[in-house]
Amino acid sequence: MPARVRPHRYDIGIAVAGLLGGLTGVGYDVFSVISVGTYSPIALAGLLVMCGAELLRRSAPGWCLAIGTVAVIWDGLFSGLLAVLLMYSDAVYAAVLYGGARLSRLVLRASVAFTVAVTVGSLVWLRDPQALILGVLAAAVTATPAWTAAIVRGHRESAANAQLRAEQTALLAEMDRVQAVAEERARMARELHDVVANHLSAIAIHSTAALTLDEPAASRDALTVIRENSTQGLAEMRRLIGILRTPGPDSGPEALPGLDSLDALVARAERSAAGRLRITADTGPDEGPRLPAPVDLAAYRIVQESLTNALKHAAPGEVEVRLRREAEALTVRVTSPYAAPGHAGGRPRAPGSGAGLTGMRERVALLGGTLSAGPREDDGGRWQVLARIPLTEGNPAP
Description:
Layout: H1 9-28, H2 44-54, H3 61-78, H4 82-98, H5 101-126, H6 132-212, H7 216-244, H8 262-273, E1 277-282, H9 293-313, E2 317-325, E3 329-337, H10 355-366, E4 370-375, E5 382-390
Parallel strand pairs: 1-2
Antiparallel strand pairs: 2-3, 3-5, 4-5
Helix pairs in contact: 1-2, 1-4, 2-3, 2-4, 3-4, 4-5, 4-6, 5-6, 6-7, 6-9, 6-10, 8-9, 9-10
């Protein structure tokens, strides 16, 4: 017997209604077709047991059916109350609807077998077509409520599965949204760093020079570079803010920088270096179709960040920018004089957070490429940034 569970209020209502119906049937001689024709007070036990079984129809449907079967047999032997048959049909219904899968299948098969057995047996025994009434009664009490419950159970399980799929879809959609937000934040962080860091690094370096050097000409040159970088930085920030705003009906696509602007980038970096660095750019032969926009932008940003790092960290000397286009990839190589920590000139001229290298690696990884940065093993004293960006593979993302 299962653990004691408080009956559901609907089950209590059904039991009370069945008891009242049974007592009313006794008072007005309302019996079923299998009634023995007289009522014996001992038959009241069957009614009471059936009402008690109805209290278990949800919490223990198997026990409800088993106890109800005993009660309906007892009632059939002594009185045959219609209320008991109705409550028993409800017990069959509850066993299929609320019982386990195994119990549900067993009751379905047993109800069909019982209906067929009663129909065939009554015809053979009585040899009268009127005996079909017993088969109809058996079907009404067992097979009909069992199959009705099976249909309801199937609809409930379908609804539960649909709800589960909807919840899983909503969960996946939320996960995709969170991932998309995270990727967009990372992309905007890279773009903001690449847009601002180059100009602010030049401003920081030249403002430091203007404060430390007591030479009017040098201070004027430093202020000129500061003004140029601040103006360009503001223009880049306005462009980025325009991209972030909701586009209007008349707004067109924003032009993104690319390798076509490499000469201007190199010239600006040389002015920011104030003669401390000589920068040369070798783009190789101009052959083949135009580079894909994501590859073009990524290559430009890698060169831009590499030159920014050279302004902040490199020792005086020559910075080389080399681009080579192959059949399947674009190779970007930037080398600069390397000032080891602890040596003269090893202290950076502007603070750095390491976000630039992280951003470069993320850009290349999104396009399915590779990037390495560090001292060159074959040429001491040189720092190298080497990126290989596929032209056709990867997941392009600006």
